[in-house]
Every structure is written in structure tokens, then in C-alpha cells.
User: What shape does this take?
Amino acid sequence: MAGRIGIGWIDEDRFERSKRVRWLDLQSVFESRVLMIGAGALGNEVAKNLALSGFRKITVVDMDHVVGSNLNRCLFFTPEDARRKESKAEAICRGIKRLSDEAEPEAVNSSIEDCNESIFSSSDIVFGCLDNINARLHANANAYNAGRAYIDGGMDGFLGKVMISLPPDGACLQCGMNRSHSKVAELRFSCTGKEVVFHERRVAGEVTTTSVVSAIMVRESLKLVSGRRDLLISNTVFYDGQRNVCEEMEVELNPECPVHVRR
Amino acid sequence: MAVRIKVKNAETGATVEMELEHENTVDEVIESAATFWSKDMGAYVLRKGKKVLRGGTSLKDAGVRADDVLELIPDPEGG
Assistant: This one.
């Protein structure tokens, strides 16, 4: 059957420019289900990129609420959200809906550790937009065990990192960790009498670095869902925004890594 | 047997020479270099070329040789 077009049709299609990227499988993008863990600065930018790229089924997990210090780098948060202590996950889901009518975001107001493991297996790709090593380890292990790609982002000021872990054969995030990571993870928990104190290390946050890191994360997911694994980073990118240097490095699978020993 | 290498600080470009044994581990090099540069408490990785070296591995098993230049890179934790 012949198609039908009108004058100016080329500017009416929301994804017309995306379709010009020949390898991009937009139908797969529309249909994929993604899990985004963490709704802070990185979560805001990843959510924006996901929604504008055409992802529709987006689950956002975060237990926290918006505060004033988020507002220098979080697109979807407003001073009113901070005043009302809005849920970060819900504020981001509302933002996603503003960008895309067709999106079906779901907010989960919980820590990822308290979520049912099925949240991993019911997703096609997992994004780690977290701010601590313990939650990252949890997300990494569960995504790997569910056989789901895990794309982790991290930042500190002008420094950034993205790692992609691809089960069943690829290295995972924990394969690349060492004793310095363990020390930082242990610092988070310190017992003072009966109470547990969480040491929240305040890390420098800077939106241009967040933008770069989130762009790499979502770009890799577009390659994955489009079946272009040949274009993926292998398997880590370090970004130094002070020098504007981006370097690809490889973390090798560690057979003694707890994630792999378990399997 | 001793092996002399250089470690480069990725944040500043500074280098430090270290004399080590083949049995020393990557973790030990990371800790020594981070302490030398008075680095903030945080996670770091050490790379040789494009490879991120495994923490518990000895320098010998990691393939580190005399005169190698390894780079100490902060592993950013924030989100």
C-alpha cells in the first residue's frame, strides 16, 4: 500500500532525526523495559536521555526525597519539590511524562535492597545511577545473576566513569574493585551503641560531568537494544573533564569475584 | 627480586618512583601511592595501558615489569 504524506511531514515525526541513524532499532527502544536505580543528578540526566531517545517503559527506584542541594544539577527537580520533600523517583517520573506522552514510567519509593529480585529479571537493561558502593554491588550482582546488562555510572566533580557488564561471560563491576573500594564501603556502616550511622560521603557534583557520563550510559543502551554489541565500549570509560580526556579501559573477569564464584 | 616502576597520578600528572618486590600486590601499590599524595579517602584503581589491574594480584601475576608506568585513577563514587 502506498504511504501518504503532506507538506512539512518531515518535521512532524518526533523520531524523524533518530531514524537517520541507520543502525538504531527504534522499535526495540520503544519496547525495551529499563530499570534505573538512583534518582539523583545522574538519574535525572539518564532519565532525560532515555525519554528523549524513545524508551518508554522506565522503572525508577529511589528511597530519597528532593533537597535544595540537588537543584544545581537535577533537571526535573524544582524548589517546590525540595520544599515539599517530594519523592525523587516520583519527581523524575513526572519529568519523563512531560518529555514523552508515550512513556510509562513507574516510580518505586524504596531502596533497591528492599525490592524484590524480580525487578531485575523483568527488565532488559539495568542502569546504576547510585551514590555508594554497597548499593552498586547489590545492583551489579542481581543484574548479573538475572542475566541482564548492567550499565553503571559514577562521578566526582569533573571525573566520571561508566562500566558496562554483560552476563554471562563479561566482567562485572565487582571484578574491577579492590581493597580501596572495600574500605569506602565499610566506612558507610559504623555502629555507635545500638544505632547504625550511615556515613554519607558528600561528593562533588557538577552537571556538565553528569551530562557526559549519562550520555555515555544511555548511548551504550541504544547500541545494546539495537543489537550492535560490536559498537559497545569494552568495558569501561574513564572521563576527566578537567583535561577533556575520555579513555576506554578494560576490567578483566576475576574468577574469584563473588559474583562469578556463586554461579 | 626488586622491581622499580613509576606510578603516575592521573589527577595531577605527577609521578613517583617505587621500588617493589614481585610479590607486592596491586592493592599495596594503590595504598602506598594514595598515601604518598595524601589522597582523599576514596576508591582508586591502577591501570597498566588499557588494563585495570586486579587488586589482590601480585605485580608478577599482573605482568608488571621494571620501568613500567602505572597510573593511579580515582574511581568516582557519586551519582
Summary: Residues 190-195 of chain A have pLDDT under 50 and may be disordered.
